User: Fold this.
Amino acid sequence: EKGGWSSFMRKEVSEQPDAVANTIRGRVVDGVVAIPELEAFGDESLRDVRRITVVACGTAAYAGMVAKYAIEQWTRIPVEVELSHEFRYRDPVIDEHTLVVSISQSGETMDTLMAVKYAREQGARTISVCNTQGATIPRESDAVVYTHAGPEVAVASTKAFVAQITALYLFGLHVARVRGTLSDAELAEHVDELLAIPGKLSTVLEESDRVGELAHWMSDTRSVLFLGRHVGFPIAMEGALKLKELAYIHAEGFAAGELKHGPIALIEPGQPVFVVVPSPRGSASLHPKVVSNIQEIRARGARVIAIAEAGDAAVLPFADEVIRIPLAAPLFEPLLAVVPLQIFAMELSQAKGLDVDQPRNLAKSVTVE
Ligand code: F6R
Assistant:
């Protein structure tokens, strides 16, 4: 039940620190990641994997896109992320060395179920990342890593998304340990980052009032763009999806590097653009590139709302608004940066008087293809 919250979505957004903590619980023992559910799967078969194909739809697919960056970096296994419905009908190249990882909150999404069944028929091994105990997709998979976000009632996925990224990161660290692609010190560093996320999420939630004000002030906006790079790119697309489904506002998420290849033509005076800014402490080249992207759109009149790390002063001269997130290692920033975007879409929906839990034309579980 809503337990005093004005909507299920508001309640579920606020439950994100617990969703992450509960998904980690029992999978980090004495600082070492070991997912009990993968034991049955066997270390030998994890060493045998040559390629990982992630299949999912919507928000779950964006969780997969975020995790691709981490899993490839940590395990050196090539990862591709496919929309389930595109994967199923294009004669994909898969064999017994392919690991197909499906992501589904409900575990009942027909497109994803069909992709998993197809992958198994082709001889691939399958792991399900799922939030619903005993659902169809985990039953049809060789192994399941449950997210423990708790029941998600609002149609728009929020806490399941951060739990999916968490489960996939745990999976990546488990595989990296088994395959020996990270040192013990590196593994420990990433585990520490993950364990710190629930506390940092609480900080983001406590400081989200400004996002609400912004949304109310922007309630007659007709189009919003979102930009990001690296792990910030899927977060930009997720921010756009939330705004489309909850506030019925046209929104697009772009890779910031793609701007000059077309989308910058959309920028006209007053166009609101959210920019997910990578940490200045991360990969040397990313941060200044995004700052210069901000300058380019600002010069054309965009109204820039930057989501940037606390203390990042480089964005200040060019952004109209800066929403701060706590410091985190670059791969872990998406778990924090997505929250202001969820809240923005939710507040804008409420400012327009819409039903935030039950947006028009959508169902929580899509059981038809
Ligand atoms: C967006 C949203 C959808 C789902 C998608 C997959 O907020 O909720 O995009 O993420 O329909 O659903 P599951 O995860 O149940 O397979």
